[in-house]
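Notes to self after the Tuesday call (sharing in case useful).
The group wants a holo model before anyone commits to mutagenesis around the pocket. I volunteered. Ligand is zinc ion. Logging inputs and output together so the record is complete.
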Amino acid sequence: MFVAGIILLALGVASFIGGYASMASLSSVDSFVGGYFVIVLGVILICVGTPLFIVGLVKKIKRAKAANAAPSPYAAPQYQAPQYQAPQYQQPQQPQQPQAKTCPQCGAAVPAGNAFCPNCGAQIQ
Ligand SMILES: [Zn+2]
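Result:
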């Protein structure tokens, strides 16, 4: 985002200057209209690129401040915590938790949540 803002800003300024130069140097109507559109294009690029540039710059500054201000003992657990809380480790465990019970009467497999055995009809506790 930061680099995109710089590129858009540079393109906008370049097209703005180029359009202004073509308007000033060339006297024909076509060049004047073309230069006008190039200037408008440059203004649009500047308008789009400036927020991207500012947002990207602020994010960079915040990251730099966080990296510099936070002491290493505090920074280390902050980076390790998200790795342990990752849902990828919790998701494989959840499908294993539903318990397939066995019927105490006939030993048939009873799906979790069933109150009675589907084979012999005995009550499952
Ligand atoms: Zn049974």
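Two things stood out.
The mean pLDDT is 77.
The longest helix spans residues 29-69.
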